[in-house]
Amino acid sequence: MSKSLPKRSENYSEWYNELVKRADLAENSAVRGCMVIKPYGYSIWEKMQRALDDMFKETGHENAYFPLFVPKSLFEAEEKNAEGFAKECAVVTHYRLKNNPDKPGKLMVDPEAKLEEELIVRPTSEAIIWSTYKNWIQSYRDLPLLINQWANVVRWEMRTRLFLRTAEFLWQEGHTAHASQEEAIEETEKMIEVYATFAEQFMAVPVVRGRKSANERFAGAEETYCIEAMMQDGRALQAGTSHFLGQNFAKAFDVKFLSKENKQDYVWGTSWGVSTRLMGALIMAHSDDEGLILPPKLAPIQVVIVPIFKGEEQLVQITEVINPIVAALKKRGISVKFDTSDKQSPGFKFAQYELKGVPVRLAIGARDLGNGTVEIARRDTKVKATYPIDSVIDTVTNLLEDIQTNIYQRAIDFRASHTFKVDTWEEFMTIIESEELGFISAHWDGTPETEEKIKELTKATIRCIPLNAVEEEGTCILTGKPSGRRVVFAKAY
Amino acid sequence: MSKSLPKRSENYSEWYNELVKRADLAENSAVRGCMVIKPYGYSIWEKMQRALDDMFKETGHENAYFPLFVPKSLFEAEEKNAEGFAKECAVVTHYRLKNNPDKPGKLMVDPEAKLEEELIVRPTSEAIIWSTYKNWIQSYRDLPLLINQWANVVRWEMRTRLFLRTAEFLWQEGHTAHASQEEAIEETEKMIEVYATFAEQFMAVPVVRGRKSANERFAGAEETYCIEAMMQDGRALQAGTSHFLGQNFAKAFDVKFLSKENKQDYVWGTSWGVSTRLMGALIMAHSDDEGLILPPKLAPIQVVIVPIFKGEEQLVQITEVINPIVAALKKRGISVKFDTSDKQSPGFKFAQYELKGVPVRLAIGARDLGNGTVEIARRDTKVKATYPIDSVIDTVTNLLEDIQTNIYQRAIDFRASHTFKVDTWEEFMTIIESEELGFISAHWDGTPETEEKIKELTKATIRCIPLNAVEEEGTCILTGKPSGRRVVFAKAY
Q: Which domains does chain A have, with CATH numbers?
């Protein structure tokens, strides 16, 4: 707490890393690339989980749990999927340790306990789940099968960053099976819209809904939908994906069903997921040089009350006034912390709760008591004002709604001022080489080669082909070849 | 559904296995020893999680998340703990697959991607967590540290059974750190009482609270508390454990704190956990030859309403009457399913919901409509009766409470009639060789040798030294040596 955070304008990346640690969200662990999610960070994740889980259930999905391990023979069954993940798989090869005869008290892998078939720690669960679905699906009556799983997955990434890219991460993965292509596509689109709604209404992060180019598709998918959010450094962050799997996994695992017309056909599939990466998006979309700014809907503590007192007697007087306020706020479903600790000064506490992004702070001292007032500060704008005590409940309730709306609007405005319609390569390069960055809406000739070339030249990638893109004749920003619609380019996390 | 379940009296074990599968709770997976928890089973687990999580939070604990993997060097740091789990560890040795040059389209472990240090898939998380706590704890101000984690763990068991013993299972593990021995012991005892309360009040399963003998202690603990439940075959099932770790892990990981008295001392620890094994206890404690019997507090569907109708018109009439009932029940927080499907006969549905343990079933047909009545059946006793429609809401509400109480009382009565105070080896053997089995309260001389010998001779183990055991002079059932209190023996899962 003694040192202030690095400034975003000076070193955005360092600011992020430090903020994640100092706000007690997460830290690196003794295991390369794996993080510890600390209680405060985890409590935000729990709120995300709860909201998402409710949305999944409202759209007819049920939770289930499938094994952590995938036998290698199943893993490799869908070849594209296997190829996509093979280079980052943690592999279990043995099932026992034994005492190391050369080093008393130390253990070694028991060479006699080698598995006949290696087990892959799931990087994603299509393989194990579709091998199970084979037994669950016989007829159209068994469809659609709408299942979600909350789980940990492992992808052996070489360069990791807390929340954004870790070897192990937490996520949910939906895996659905359908009787027709249309229905599967409808599900894929429905779930990307669920994610977009969650990002916008809970995280207060506006997102572009779109489809990935063929290059960026999920390995094994026919089509990948995504939502892309803009961070405060102008970079894009992919915040969720929803895949139309066609019949790829059904064919790989021989999952057929008897249709209403009494014909055998392969099942159509989807999968979709969001992960603890959302934590990174949440942090980077709103926070400032003083610390986190959390949307009230996801803040573990929505209101903190800091008494300013000398001696027990003053605290008792303040407590008498505050207790009914705490009770009334809780009754409205608002989470409140009344921090009566005398180990830290009010100023220290103010900074601490700012760092942790608590949306609303009340401060009340002896003089306020006499005046019948409270000082209320909002975290997003840092505006402070004095209110009569008897208006506090409504003021706080309204403020929380206001903050949720305000930070969303701020993010929308930021994105608008960092989104550029570009028609020449020169303009494109100017933006991509500037510090501000942003989303570039430009024409592309639709070929993987051009996409690759642009990535090589600029490190910018096609984030998505927006779902609401208008048909528009144009010419590719790089090659000058004809294009039918603009796509979104950006540098990305 | 066509075949009925095996009878408990004929083959209890087969009955259990079949019930788990037919009630759609879980099934074996393609991975040896790992289960798939199906949606219906998982929804019961979710209810357990929610109730337990609330209890943990009420007692001051916070959730966090620690890595799945434990580097071997950390794993072996607490030697007793390491030794206890070494023989059942899944070990990750490689982090990449590559194309198999000999088998096109197939993958192989890339020998060049061998980890410098092997990673153990956590069988329990003391090691990784205490290595983290080292950085979190400096002074008494950082204590107590009260953290819980919901996670998957892996123990490579050779003989597995759905829910009861699986290579991977889901659980929660609490890990707390304290400034004094007294406080750590108090926490250990508090949490075993939380588990006991959950088992009795939510699962409706009475449990014996006790301490384990030294032989049966958790590897690395100074004392292990447990709760032991009796299944309908008279066997014991350990349903939860809470460990006082002393300073063992603090010493192994060098976790010290500065006390109020300004002295450096090692921290005192506890850990405690319950797992998906509770699902096995829940199933075996109450269910009958027709299927599951679920306590209303954990039943995903508490009330099912089955309309008996011919043609759309009758269904419309019934629906008009039923819709307000569904709404009123939901308003009371009761989960209701109104099953209007016409694909299955009412009789088929009745059997199906019996199999799945839905506590209350309403049936209503055209004649009931005329009479203004509904037939209500309770799952636990199978008693059916006809009630006026306008009394349904209160009747159902009362019935749910009644069923919760009744199955708990039934389990208490069963346990009482299968608990035997025994003073001679002959009596002991008679019970242990009978089919009914049960808990045997008998004297033991307190030595591991005698405990081992009794296990060898009878397969019965000391389940626990009950917390409420009275001081009582007696002689050991096997050796005749003096004993100060009775312990509980049983054959166990």
A: 12-286 (3.30.930.10), 296-403 (3.40.50.800), 419-490 (3.30.110.30)
